[in-house]
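[Meeting: bench + compute handoff]

Bench side (C.D.) handed over the final construct sequence. Compute side (W.E.) agreed to return the predicted structure before the next meeting so the bench team could plan truncations. Sequence as handed over:
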Amino acid sequence: MTIETLENGDYITYERSADPNGTWRQEIKELYRLGFNFQGHSWTHTNLTKYSQEELYKELFLSKQAIETLTNNVISEICFPQGFYSDLVVEEARKAG
C-alpha cells in the first residue's frame, strides 16, 4: 500500500508496522496531514471476542496509542476487526479510550 493506492478501508497491519525502514510511519503522517481520519482497529487485526480482558486492553490500547503518537491527535473511534465484538470488547474499548 502506498499513498497513491490507498483505498477506503485499507489498514496498517502488525506486520507492516514492524517494517524496519519505518516507511509506513511517514505514510500515516502524510495521510493525516492530507485529512484522512484514523481510527483504532486493534493491534493485530484479529477477532477480539477470543481475547481475555487483559489481552483486549493491550490490543485496543496499543493500537490507539500508536495512532495518537503518529498523528499527534486523540482518537475516540474504533472499527472492530471483521465486525466481531462482544459486551467485554465494547467495555474494554471504552476503557482504552
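W.E. noted at the follow-up: DSSP finds four helices and no strands in the chain. C.D. will use this when planning the next construct.
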